[in-house]
Amino acid sequence: MYNVHSVSGADASAVHGGAGVDPNLPPHRQEEAKQLLSRCLNLGISALRSSLPAIDVVELVVRELESDPLFNSGRGSALTEKGTAEMEASIMDGPRRRCGAVSGLTTVKNPVSLARLVMDNSPHSYLAFSGAEDFARQQGVELVDNGYFITEENLGMLKLAKEANTIFDYRIPAAGLETCSVGAGAVESGLQMNGLPISIYAPETVGCVVVDSQGRCAAATSTGGLMNKKSGRIGDSPLIGAGTYACDICAVSCTGEGEAIIRGTLARDVAAVMEYKGLGLQEGVDYVIKERLDEGLAGMIAVSRNGEVGYGFNTTGMFRGCATEDGFMEVGIWE
Amino acid sequence: MGWAIALHGGAGNIPLSLPPERREPREEALRHCLKIGVAALKAKRPPLDVVELVVRELENNPHFNAGRGSVLTTKGTVEMEACIMDGNKKCGAVSGLSTVVNAISLARLVMEKTPHIYLAFDGAEAFAREQGVETVDAGHFITQENVERLKQVIEANRVQIDYTQPMQKDVLEETPTNGDSQIGTVGCVAVDSHGNLATATSTGGFVNKMVGRIGDTPIIGAGTYANSLCAVSATGKGEAIIRATIARDVAALMEYKGLSLKEAAAYVIEECVPRGNAGLVAVSATGEVTMQFNTTGMFRACATEDGYTEIGIWPSPMQN
């Protein structure tokens, strides 16, 4: 059911725009999403053709996703309970497992690029809030008003989320809600993630994983986080081993219920089962989705150093795309 | 099978020439914390309570790099972080605290009172006030020793750090000052006779760190991790511990390769992080305990129900 496509020694890439999709999402919105995913995949492919290393490719693809208001990262980020955008991201370079992460950004136009600078230009791996913003200024990255990231649509979603939270206990686990009432309105589909009805939930992140023709793997993930989150809440996206991981053998980017991904150390575990149990890439992804999520809902994309690409999710849908060097390319939402 | 507990006060370049006035208060603290941890386990307190109370004690002690006695940021301020996790993988973490007396207790409240795992900076401070935990003036945490330490490190690093140049992270060596580097964290792991596990880690971070720098301690799987097999708390160079996902890997090796607790910990410490970078304490669901490090020393103590006790700083004859 989940595709694996592999050509040894060749490059491959995958992108995602979040796991957990409203089954009632209007067709034109689905089309928009698929077009964005295709555009990003093609961007990645051109970059690979010009011999850019994996680490550069993941950064530029995620920048593209951040700049587009469609998904929940950069412009178009989900909003905090105060109606502001507070963004986080991480990036990891498989060779030598170098990494960089940022949280609590409010003016940095491309969080993934600041994460990269943390990795390359600072003695640390993770900077957050005002310290991260200071570093951004010091590094001369592009800064904008917080308003740049906020869309009308998300302001509307925030309102609905606040209303929904007065009805739903936010801490009720989202398990067991596989059925949805056919033909009902969006809010009544019955599906929930992180305690919110799926139509309001907003898939949480964007991400990209790449292996270049020299077998170097890299991963990057970026998000605005959870709709209506408390300011200061950090999710899985900036946490190495949870939302993002890359090493010699693979690169992984996850999306979904942040707390479940953290607890399951999802991204690291794919690499760990490959390394310690000898599983292949797709086997590893399937194993982790099945065994490491307990009642949590999430999805992931992954590439291996052998040019394989794989993905998996236990949610209703995941916006994703993947491509391999032999010309294979696929963009999808549902199973 | 019985209960077991281990705790640490930081791994690092602790020189053998550490003068008695610096060594003895820490040894005494380790002894004291071990005693209260053991008493709590004997009184059948759940491991989650035990690790929290031991780490609170270590946070309150100004001789360790957590709570009072935290090392200072490059601006001379204190930014504390902590993380707690139990064998059911419930967890809580906080970063960027400047007024909360016991960061570990706030981490526990994040775990128990919110749907989130991790709160940081202003949001975490606001949560602390909402919860009515004890807060004090930021000056409370700052010790003269750490003011001195910061001054000396800034002097020594003045030439080394240019943040606009590509930075080799392993080049940034901890510079021993007064022959006592005080890097690392405090932590405690415990298991009861039913196999319930818990871990807690707390720290002020890295001396002269950039404001806003987050280390390994609050990152689940890096400095702190527990599941049904074991509980781990790590200490050392945060950046190295993060990339090696140390705490998670100990458990993963046990689960996926069938290694014992000691074998898994040894593998991670010897093979997964460069020498001089890390140490950890860990207990398993079956009551085993291990304390391993590849640094010069690690302030540590452990005890098991069958009467074994160890308190140490440098490698002991029994290690490995």
Write the SSE topology:
The complex is a heterodimer of chains A (335) and B (320).
Chain A lengths: L11 E8 L7 H23 L4 H14 L19 E7 L4 E8 L5 H11 L4 E3 H11 L12 H16 L24 E2 L2 E2 H4 L3 E7 L5 E7 L9 E2 L9 E3 L3 E7 L1 H6 L2 H12 L3 H11 L6 E7 L4 E5 L4 E7 L4 E4 L3
Parallel strand pairs in A: 3-4
Antiparallel strand pairs in A: 1-7, 1-14, 2-3, 2-8, 5-6, 7-8, 10-11, 11-12, 12-13, 14-15
Helix pairs in contact in A: 1-2, 2-3, 8-9
Chain B lengths: L3 E9 L7 H23 L4 H14 L19 E7 L4 E7 L5 H11 L4 E3 H11 L12 H14 L28 E6 L5 E7 L20 E3 L3 E7 L1 H6 L2 H12 L3 H12 L5 E7 L4 E5 L3 E8 L4 E4 L8
Parallel strand pairs in B: 3-4
Antiparallel strand pairs in B: 1-5, 1-11, 2-3, 2-6, 5-6, 7-8, 8-9, 9-10, 11-12
Please, could you describe this protein's structure?
Chain B: It catalyses: Cleavage of a beta-linked Asp residue from the N-terminus of a polypeptide. Chain B: It holds the Pfam family Asparaginase_2. The complex is a heterodimer of chains A (335) and B (320). Chain A has a single domain, classed as (Glycosyl)asparaginase (Glutamine Phosphoribosylpyrophosphate, subunit 1, domain 1, 4-Layer Sandwich), CATH 3.60.20. Helix content of chain A is 32%, strand content 24%. Chain A has nine helices and 15 strands. An eight-stranded mixed β-sheet of chain A has the order 4-3-2-8-7-1-14-15. In chain A, a hairpin with a 4-residue loop joins β14 and β15 (329-332). Chain A is globular, with a radius of gyration of 18 Å. The model of chain A is unreliable at 167-188 (pLDDT under 50). By secondary structure, chain B is α+β, with helices and mostly antiparallel strands. Helix content of chain B is 32%, strand content 23%. In chain B, β9 and β10 (289-293) form a beta hairpin. In chain B, α1 runs antiparallel to α2 (47-60), α2 (47-60) runs antiparallel to α3 and α7 (246-257) packs across α8 (261-272). The two termini of chain B are 21 Å apart. Classes of the chains: A alpha+beta (335), B alpha+beta (320). Chains A and B meet through β3, β4, α4, β9 and α7 of A and β3, β4, α4, α6 and α7 of B. β9 (233-234) of chain A pairs antiparallel with β4 of chain B.
